[in-house]
Design a protein that fits this description.
The complex is a heterodimer of chains A (317) and B (242).
Chain A lengths: L1 H18 L2 H26 L8 H16 L5 H25 L4 H21 L9 E2 L15 H23 L1 H11 L1 H6 L4 H27 L1 E2 L1 H5 L1 H14 L6 H22 L9 H16 L15
Antiparallel strand pairs in A: 1-2
Chain B lengths: L1 E10 L2 E11 L4 E5 L6 H8 L7 E6 L2 E2 L5 H7 L1 E3 L12 H9 L6 H14 L15 H14 L4 E5 L7 H16 L3 E5 L3 H7 L2 E6 L2 E6 L1 H6 L1 H8 L3 H6 L1
Parallel strand pairs in B: 3-8, 3-9, 6-7, 7-8
Antiparallel strand pairs in B: 1-2, 1-4, 4-5, 9-10
Helix pairs in contact in B: 3-4, 3-5, 4-5
The chains are: A mainly alpha (317), B alpha/beta (242).
Chain lengths: 317, 242
């Protein structure tokens, strides 16, 4: 039964862009993309319980690494992509080593990640290699070899593939020793240590993984819009978006970020549509943020495990 | 098997453990008793690597483990439980125990079957699918024991596994601990329930204000005037004898 539902969902996702207008295909692409970067947050924040307010640091490092390699050094973007992931992984591990060596846990860790993201933003704003606040343009040359597509359907499928990979990684976490250790660390660090888990190393590993994934999202974003600047790449909005979709959908669950992303993207589009139908709402901008806020309050109060907890009692792995 | 020599640990000006020494031989059950605040849990935590000792030496099976991190001490074959139980609340009993089992194997099925075997060993076989947060006090104590056992230790440090249990539950867990020892695990336990210590331990150490004040069989310890005074106050031994 569950396999059947999954197969149907897969099929629907594959045929969806063929049946709907371009605009809706783009909405679908954004949904999968947000689910993907949300999953990168979920892996460290949801499974391992290391809440971060600064995942934009990884996102931006990914976006800038591939863009600089491409624009300044003439790399092919497909080759720059793994380099960006490696860089994101390194930054993730670096931030983890510094924070956890200093013994930061819980909200202190969350705040230090926020600080790191801000430092990156300010650095990108002033450094010459990133062209400062001007941002960086990637020359349009719509050929697949350039990671640019004439037909936007390929961008959709790429986002869909990224989302699938991230779901598989999350699924693997629910079934592997590494994942079990992360959950143990989230639930109780001292008990985890007593049971032979090298808590520090595991936390560094998970932040490296999460950072690499998030950086992959950064490159994807840069290739889709062909432009990045410090605020897009390292702005707090991105960090909040990743955290929000995960919390709304269900932190520490496989499908949480995807469910959250579907919910938030839908709200986003509906509020935009509502504003165009009822002119009075035009002055209430951005309406979507108000609805997000209200929904987050409701979820934290009534459904702390997110929408995923409504799908039967999905196990917390 | 375990040798602790003149171990000291201070927090600020307070000497929680002051030159304490103890020995545990392979196959023994050894008790560690003492009044509240004597430093028993600190001594345990220091032995298990949760605190760095200020002075002294700890060796396990001939290897120096002083100042090692808990996960390395666990690899050396010694694991502790917590007095205040620390279940992984949002995962099942099976998954709780598997975290311990994963210490010896990376294979999920192997870890799961090891977890089941250990659960049966401590009498939790019928609670495998309950979440950690659903357990009674007795259940949580057993879970502590089970998770620790799943790492396949040579030496188990049990911190008050009987505190808060009723007499029936105590009798049951005493039986479980006996069987654990029969299976070849050496045990050092902190306990307040004297009847349990007397029936389980071959030898008992008494800690008072961070210092080891006596060592001997449970019967000899109960007669020791210094021990009686540590619990009941200065001069108590003389009053009782009169």
């Amino acid at each position: 039964m569950r396999h059947l539902a999954l197969a149907a969902a897969l099929l629907a996702a594959v045929v969806y862009p063929l049946l709907v207008p371009n605009y809706l295909a783009t909405v679908g692409m954004l949904m999968f993309f947000t689910a993907f970067i949300g999953q990168s947050w979920n892996i460290s924040g949801g499974f391992a319980g290391q809440t971060s307010f600064g995942h934009a640091a990884f996102f931006g490092v990914g976006a800038y690494t591939s863009t600089i390699l491409q624009v300044t050094y003439g790399w092919n973007p497909w080759l720059a992509w793994p380099a960006a992931m490696a860089m994101g992984g390194l930054v993730g591990a670096g931030i983890a080593v510094l924070s956890f060596r200093a013994g930061l846990r819980g909200s202190y860790f969350a705040l230090i990640t926020l600080a790191f993201a801000e430092v990156f933003r300010i650095a990108a704003n002033s450094a010459s290699i990133t062209r400062g606040g001007l941002g960086m343009l990637i020359k349009a040359d719509q050929r697949p070899i350039n990671f640019q597509f004439k037909d936007q359907i390929w961008i959709y499928y790429l986002a869909f593939a990224l989302c699938l990979v991230s779901l598989l990684i999350a699924w693997w976490l629910t079934r592997s020793r590494f994942g079990a250790r992360l959950v143990a660390i989230r639930e109780n660090e001292d008990a985890a240590r007593a049971l032979g888990i090298d808590v520090f190393t595991e936390k560094v590993k998970v932040l490296a993984l999460s950072g690499a994934m998030c950086a992959a999202g950064g490159t994807f974003y840069a290739q889709k819009y062909l432009y990045i600047d410090p605020n897009i790449a390292f702005g707090i909005d991105k960090s909040v978006e990743m955290l929000l979709v995960t919390m709304v959908g269900g932190a520490g669950t496989i499908f949480g970020p995807l469910i959250g992303s579907i919910a938030l993207t839908t709200i986003n589009e509906l509020t935009r549509a509502a504003a165009s139908v009822f002119p009075a709402l035009k002055n209430v901008q951005p309406l979507s943020l108000i609805v997000y806020g209200a929904m987050l309050v409701l979820i934290v109060a009534r459904l702390p495990d997110g929408f995923a907890s409504l799908l039967g009692r999905r196990r917390h792995a | 098997m375990l040798e602790v020599r003149e171990l000291s640990k201070a927090f600020g000006g307070l000497k929680a453990v002051d030159q304490a020494s103890l020995d545990v031989r392979a196959g023994e059950i050894v008790g560690l008793i003492g009044p509240n605040g004597a430093g028993k849990t600190t001594l345990f935590a220091t032995i298990a690597g949760f605190h760095k000792p200020d002075a002294g030496r700890i060796s396990l099976q001939g290897h120096d483990i002083t100042g090692m991190a808990p996960h390395r001490i666990c690899a050396a074959g010694m694991v502790r439980t917590f007095q205040i139980t620390q279940p992984f609340a949002r995962i099942s009993v099976r998954e709780n125990i598997m975290v311990g089992a994963y210490f010896r194997t990376a294979d999920r099925h192997e870890a799961a079957s090891l977890a089941e075997a250990v659960a049966n060993q401590v009498g939790m076989g019928d609670q495998l699918d309950r979440p950690g947060s659903d357990l009674t006090v007795a259940g949580r104590k057993r879970l502590e024991l089970a998770r620790a056992l799943a790492t396949r230790p040579a030496l188990l440090l049990l911190d008050e596994v009987m505190a808060g249990l009723n007499p029936t539950e105590i009798a049951e867990i005493v039986q479980v601990i006996r069987e654990v020892r029969r299976a070849g695990v050496t045990i050092l336990l902190i306990e307040h329930v004297m009847q349990a210590v007397t029936s389980l331990a071959e030898r008992v150490y008494v800690l008072n204000q961070g210092r080891m004040i006596a060592e001997g069989t449970p019967a000899a310890i109960a007669e020791n005037p210094e021990v009686v005074e540590a619990y009941l106050g200065h001069g108590a031994a003389r009053v009782l004898r009169a």
